[in-house]
Amino acid sequence: MIKMEILTDSLERNIEILSHTLPLEESSDIVTRRLKLGGLSVFLVTINGLTDSFLPEYILSVIQEKMLPGSAASTGSKDPKAGEPSSGQVNPREDKVYADLKMLADKEIGYYQTEFTESFTILINALLNGVTVILADGCSKALLLDCRRYPSRSIEEPETEKVTKGAKDGFVESITSNTGMIRRRVKSRGLVFKSLTLGDESKTDIFIAYIKELADTGLVGRIETALKSRQLTSVTMGSKSIEEILVKKKWFNPLPSMISTERPDVAASYILEGHVAVLVDTSPYVLILPATFFQFTQSPEDYYKNPIVGNHMRLIRFISIIISLYLMPVFLLLGNMTQKLPEGLRHITGEYTSSSKLFLYCMFIEFGLDLFAYASSHAYEGFNSSLSIVGGLIVSDIAINLDWASREVIFYGAVTMLATLTMSYIEFGEALRIYRVLMLLTTGIGGLFRQTLAGFITGFALVTLSIVTTRTFTGKSYFWPLVPFNWKALKTLLFRYTTPKAQPSNQWNRS
């Protein structure tokens, strides 16, 4: 195996090392060009699909024009401020070639970022990221041209975070486009996008975004240390992989510990409030941390409505959390205790049904609702609405006729599903569903042994224990600012204020 350290002044030797490191001949998307210009041998290599296709052609034409015999570069005449050889250089020919390349970079390529490197490691990493590389015979430095243009879909509103008013743009899979959308909204001089690369094979670009004057520098350092300390082969699942790296959670804590958003306005607002955002290339989701329970009860829609309407919607969302989590388990509890209920309350659970049958009813409807939810999310758009509405009506009617469910179970199940759909963040709603199924299992199993109340209390205790042991990335309580109590912070999360009162400079620091 060829030892790969630094470049030599032999073009053929550099190409040989590069060929043994990368499949230059085998991979059709790696574009290479050998040129003989005015006695100077030049080798250009780039990756098709990651580079602005116009630049390589432009560069070759400039090289041909500037380095042919009779040009300023070929005769050795050059700008006195550009390409001065360092005091350590003793090879006149190499000084001249390097000066030619530097003049090319300084004078003819004004828009794109350029850099020289002697390291093969830096060269290959840059090339795999879409940077164009130019090697010249007689020069032990490579010219790197950052003219990347990643393939990307058009910018459109996210499907899961739609609003009736407000911006209709959303993050895409290109990290440079995403940073531009944030920068467009936050023109602060203190806004920083700190970059690093993760994954030995994937070499995924990651940006940590924050405002120096507002963000907790200790938090930024912890995030950077946590990412750099993990040796991974690849970051295959984008932002989800980064989330699992940053937050070490137990299997019994399904609640999300950071916000995942596709909306640039949401990300920008959190950054302005002192939060830290993590952007991952190839992922349209931006991670916001730290995050607590009350932030998952907010929605961009609240801020695009009048304050009183926004507060009403937020109240409905709080009520929906309780309904989504407890309605079905409480119904199962009362259904097993129908004969003990007062006469006026028995209609809530319907006719008396055995504990085992009612338990099966509830589990069937939970499975059926999950089945419809997953099928609807994966069905193509033209089939989606008919599957959700017509399929739900037909299946529920047949289930009642076949004695697989009762009208009451279907009704409470449908209300539970609607309450879950009001959640602004899918991960939070899915965590509530896991907790609800756990409480149904403990309550139903308890009912089989005539210990329905004990089973319900057990499930309630397990869910409560899981919630209170959930921590944020910083180790802060998941229910901060309720625990520990901080009214100034809590009221900002509970209520929607007008824009003058809701300015980040007037708010508490959420970091």
Describe this structure in words.
The structure is a single chain. The protein is an alpha+beta fold and 511 residues long. It folds into 3 domains: 136 residues, no CATH class; 133 residues, no CATH class; 166 residues, no CATH class. Helices cover 45% and strands 12% of the residues. The strands form 2 sheets. It has a 5-stranded antiparallel sheet with strand order 1-2-4-5-3, with helices on both faces. The chain has a 5-stranded antiparallel sheet with strand order 6-7-9-10-8, sandwiched between helices. The longest helix is centred in the middle third of the chain and has 29 residues. It is elongated.
Summarize the structure.
The chain has 511 residues and is α+β, with helices and mostly antiparallel strands. Helices cover 45% and strands 12% of the residues.
Low-confidence sequence ranges = 68-90
Largest sheet: 5 strands, antiparallel
Strand segment tally:
10
Average of pLDDT = 82
How are helices and strands ordered from N to C?
Answer: HEEHHEHEEHEEHHEHEEHHHHHHHH
Name the strands of the widest sheet in spatial order: 1-2-4-5-3
Radius of gyration, CA atoms, in whole angstroms: 31 Å
Q: Which of globular, elongated, flat, extended, rod-shaped describes the shape? A: elongated
